[in-house]
Every structure is written in structure tokens, then in C-alpha cells.
């Protein structure tokens, strides 16, 4: 069964304290792995798509990496405005319709 | 680019009434749109996949007669919650698949439905 597991469930950091969020996945052929940021009461905001093991993408303080079993979202020197829930999702290669399988999310809190 | 809108952003209705939620892709064409439901402190739960010009595909356990989906154009999908009850109260979010951007999906801002 296709599955996505994110850890930790919640992460509290001090401003400037770098860390990583993990997304482990099991899927029958990966078409793509997606990272989203979601603020309370809002829809998810697209961050990155990764397609193959070894791929990396960066945006400001965020860097996403991908292996054959997991993805990491590295946050360098976070600021309070980075506080949000970060969602990971995968799309299976057999799913031509584009259905995403989401993890439960990691709630990040960055204190000043 | 890749902006998805939803209307209304919130709605309060009485039990037994029907509510329509619109999802629009503003700057791209979306042959496929998705409807999700999200409970507090939980992840997104896919309700159905909406394809332009054809019937929606519902996930297991989702009542197709209660949650009517119409995808009449390449930029608009609607979700109608029929005969709403308090247990239908939730945060409903749509997403649109942008084939011009390697199959990425972009989400709307969500609609908060409260059924009294």
C-alpha cells in the first residue's frame, strides 16, 4: 500500500536554529514528491517538486532533497515567519490522474 | 502565475440546505481538479477527482449524492454539499493540476463551511 509518513509531528525551534523535516514514502513507482506549506485557515502553498533520487531544490531558507525512500526539507536559520505546517505528498507513476498521497504534516514553530 | 481561487471563503448555513463552492484556476487551464476536506489538526483527505467534461471520481466512503461535483470548463469546478448537516462542517479545499508545469497541483485558499 502506498504510504507517506512525516516526522516529527511537531518541531519547535529557536530563531536561527537550523533543522530538517523528514518525509518517508512507500510507493509503487514515484512520479513526483511534493512539498507544501500550510498556514492556519489557508490552503497549502506549493514549495517544491522532486522527481528523482539525488535531486535537490532550494528556495530562500528551504532546501529539499530526495532519495529512493525519503525526502528531507532542510530549514537553514529559520525565522518566526517560517512557522507553519509543512506537508509532503507523493504521486505514483501508475496514477495518471494525478492523485496525491499526503503525509500527516509537520507543525513547525519558530520562536524569536 | 498558477493561482487558484475559491468562493466563498466561508459560509454558514442551516441544516438541510445546499451549499455550492466554486474553484477557479485563474491563469492556467486545469483539465483535472481535486476536492479535499480537512479536519482540525489533520492532513488533507481527498474526496474526489474532477475531470473537465466527465463525471467525477469519488474516493471510497464519499457519498457522491451528497457531494455533487461539476467541472464544466477548463477553469471552473464546483462542489455542492446537498442537504447539509452539522457533520458536514469542515474546511474544503480544491486544487488544480497544471499540465503546463510538470503535473504540479496548486491549491485554493479553502472554504470554511459551518452547518448550524
- The helix-strand sequence of chain A is EEEEEEEEEEE
Strand tally of chain A, please? 11
Biggest sheet descriptor of chain A: 6 strands, mixed
- Overall average pLDDT of chain B: 92
> Structural class per helix/strand content of chain A?
mainly beta
Task: Estimate the strand proportion of chain A.
Answer: over 45%
Q: Could you give the order of the helices and strands of chain B?
A: EEEEEEEEEEE
Low-confidence stretches of chain A: none
Amino- and carboxy-terminal Cα gap of chain A: 41 Å
What is the helix fraction of residues of chain A, given as a range?
under 10%
Tell me the span between the first and last alpha carbons of chain B: 37 Å
Using only CA atoms, what is the Rg of chain A?
Answer: 14 Å
Greatest chain-chain interface? A-B, 22 and 26 residues
List keywords for this structure.
heterodimer, A: 112 residues, 0% helix, B: 116 residues, mainly beta, 4-stranded antiparallel β-sheet, 54% strand, globular
Task: Report a brief summary of the structure.
Chain A is an all-beta fold and 112 residues long.
Structure description:
The complex is a heterodimer of chains A (112) and B (116). Chain A is 0% helix and 58% strand. Chain A has strands spanning 3-7, 10-14, 19-26, 30-38, 45-50, 56-59, 62-66, 70-75, 84-92, 101-102, 106-111. In chain A, strands 2, 4, 5, 9, 10 and 11 form a 6-stranded mixed β-sheet that branches. Chain A has a 5-stranded antiparallel β-sheet with strand order 1-3-8-7-6, with no helix packed on it. Chain A is globular, with a radius of gyration of 14 Å. The mean pLDDT of chain A is 94. With 116 residues, chain B is mainly beta. In chain B, the strands form 2 sheets. In chain B, strands 2, 4, 5, 6, 9, 10 and 11 form a 7-stranded mixed β-sheet that branches. A 4-stranded antiparallel β-sheet of chain B has the order 1-3-8-7, with no helix packed on it. Chain B is globular. At the A-B interface, strand 4 and strand 5 of A face strand 5, strand 9 and strand 10 of B.
Amino acid at each position: 500500500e502506498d504510504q507517506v509518513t512525516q516526522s516529527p509531528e511537531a518541531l519547535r525551534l529557536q530563531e536561527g536554529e537550523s533543522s530538517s523535516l523528514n518525509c518517508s514514502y512507500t510507493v509503487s513507482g514515484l512520479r513526483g514528491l511534493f512539498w507544501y506549506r500550510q498556514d492556519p485557515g489557508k490552503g497549502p502553498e506549493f514549495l517544491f517538486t522532486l522527481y528523482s533520487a539525488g535531486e535537490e531544490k532550494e528556495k530562500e531558507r528551504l532546501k529539499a532533497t530526495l532519495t529512493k525512500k525519503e525526502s528531507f526539507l532542510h530549514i537553514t536559520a529559520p525565522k518566526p515567519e517560517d512557522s507553519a505546517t509543512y506537508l509532503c505528498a507523493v504521486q505514483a507513476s501508475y496514477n495518471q490522474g494525478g492523485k496525491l498521497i499526503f503525509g500527516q504534516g509537520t507543525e513547525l514553530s519558530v520562536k524569536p | 502565475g498558477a493561482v487558484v481561487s475559491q468562493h466563498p471563503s466561508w459560509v454558514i448555513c442551516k441544516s438541510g440546505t445546499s451549499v455550492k463552492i466554486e474553484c477557479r484556476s485563474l491563469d492556467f487551464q486545469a483539465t483535472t481538479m481535486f476536492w479535499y476536506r480537512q479536519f482540525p489538526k489533520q492532513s488533507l483527505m481527498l474526496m474526489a477527482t474532477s475531470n473537465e467534461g466527465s463525471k467525477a471520481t469519488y474516493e471510497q466512503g464519499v457519498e457522491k449524492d451528497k457531494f455533487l461535483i461539476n467541472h464544466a470548463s477548463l477553469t471552473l469546478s464546483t462542489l455542492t454539499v446537498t442537504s447539509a448537516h452539522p457533520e458536514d462542517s469542515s474546511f474544503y479545499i480544491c486544487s488544480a493540476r497544471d499540465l503546463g508545469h510538470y503535473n504540479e497541483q496548486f491549491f485554493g485558499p479553502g472554504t470554511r463551511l459551518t452547518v448550524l
